[in-house]
Amino acid sequence: xxxxxxxxxxxxxxxxxxxxxxxxxxxxxxxxxxxxxxxxxxxxxxxxxxxxxxxxxxxxxxxxxxxxxxxxxxxxxxxxxxxxxxxxxxxxxxxxxxxxxxxxxxxxxxxxxxxxx
Length: 117
Fold this sequence. Notes:
single chain, 117 residues, alpha+beta, two-stranded antiparallel ribbon, 2 helices
């Protein structure tokens, strides 16, 4: 007996399911790579296990031809210094949230790549 042909709706459902699985695998790979990089860093400044926590943000480079990925910037943090201590002179880091620090690290990575050309 031949299988019934798929309707357009069934095809869409299959594509969505396949994409969801691929996205899940990709997301798991990103998370594992970021966690592995974080775990490889020295203990200094990390939260105490079971007592403290922090936010982690990372930016990865993915080579599409090989699907190779590497962490190019990783940061942790969840603090801002507050209005009283902010400086207009640029001599104090005002925002130490993980995503802000990861972005700063990524910009530094990009500047290094451009200067190497």
